[in-house]
Amino acid sequence: MFALELASAPVTSSFSDRFGGGSAANGDEAGSSIPPEFRSKYSTSFADYPQPLSDPVRTRIWGPPVVRGSAADPGGPGICAFILTLFSFLLILATFPLSLCFSVKVVQEYERAVIFRLGRLLKGGARGPGIFFIVPCIDTYRKIDLRTVSFDVPPQEILSRDSVTVAVDAVVYYRVHNPTIAVSNVENFSHSTRLLAATTLRNVLGTKNLAEVLSERETISHTMQSSLDEATDPWGVKVERVEIKDVRLPVQLQRAMAAEAEAAREARAKVIAAEGEQKASHALREAAEIISESPGALQLRYLQTLNTISAEKNSTIIFPLPIDILKHFIKPDKKDKK
After folding, report:
1. What does the H/E/C string look like for 62-103?
2. pLDDT tens digits, residue range 72-118?
3. DSSP 191-205
4. Domains of the chain
5. Which residues are within 8 A (CB) of 286 and not within 5 positions of it... i.e. 6 or more apart?
6. Which of 104, 112, 228 is nearest to 180 (CA)?
7. I need a surface site. Which of 15, 212, 263, 328 has the fewest CB within 10 A?
8. Measuring CA to CA, which residue among 194, 291, 289, 283 is closest to residue 239?
9. What order of strands is seen across the sheet that includes strand 149-159?
């Protein structure tokens, strides 16, 4: 029988070797007794062929498969865990209803509880909000607040790209979006996030000039938020916002910048004053040309000036004489006679 011959052959070699199909000389003669569909299906060794576990031939040769993760797995809970769990439940039943005070727990709407049973994370993820039950002797739990938390990054002495030392502090807003990861993947997610924020602030501002630090705060905040969010995602933390709070410059640099700004303001003031004088002179010239063309306009201007003077409380009023009256008393020059 073909099944008996297959069972007597070692399982580490292929069917072609056992039935003469390994060489080109006797491959066709010896392998002719094997059905074509069987030959195409089992042309490789059993060790390399990923055949289903329900195949009767494979089961007959190798025996029943071993499923990993079963109770025989040394990584799974053993008999001691089972005994402790059974003892804990019996203790709860023996002390009922007093045991309810230790078994029933409540978490708020903004909280979640991560439960560990004998050191292993309990299936089902975080519990809450509301009431949940624990086994006092073998269960431990930790509450995680899901609300947004803000903290101040301490002032960091940073050397900018143009070799200027500045002190910069910031504010970071974050929240926990996965309580299970926040407990199991990092020891203290809050402390780790604070340290990472300070380091990221130094790294980002170290690539900027002083002018960029002072003028591009929104860009720097967005860059920091993206970097922190990517780094804290394996911790179950979501960084929502980062804001640059204050930029402190050295005293000497502040004085130099103040002097530069004052000089720039004075220069702009002088330019504005010169432009105003220029416009005023053009306006006066145009007004003089208009008044010189019309004698009546000059007389009206004279009367307006007298009205302005008389409106004020002055004890002395000066009446200027028209130049035309004085022409009769002025002797003509010799050049005029000629």
Report:
1. HCCCCCCCCCCCCCCCCHHHHHHHHHHHHHHHHCCCCCHHHH
2. 444 566 788 788 888 888 888 888 888 888 888 999 999 999 999 88
3. HHHHHHHHHHHHHHH
4. 2-62 (no CATH), 97-145 (no CATH), 149-252 (3.30.479.30)
5. none
6. 112
7. 328
8. 194
9. 149-159, 165-176, 237-248
Q: Provide the token pair at 261.
A: 């700004």
Instruction: Give the strand pairing for 165-176 and 130-133.
Output: unpaired
Cα gap 71→68, rounded to integer Å: 9
Given a contact cutoff of 8 angstroms between Cβ atoms, the answer to whether 153 and 198 are in contact is yes
Radius of gyration, alpha carbons of the chain: 48
Whether the predicted pLDDT of 54 surpasses 50: no
In the sheet with 111-117, reading across from the earlier edge strand, the strands are 120-121, 111-117, 139-145
> Among the residues of the chain, which ranges form H helices?
2-8, 15-18, 27-30, 36-41, 56-62, 79-94, 100-103, 179-184, 189-205, 210-215, 217-232, 251-293, 295-311, 323-326, 334-337
Three-class secondary structure of residue 172 per DSSP: strand
Dump pLDDT digits (tens) for 288-312: 777 777 766 766 777 777 777 766 6
Phi, psi of 40 (to 5 degrees): -70, -30
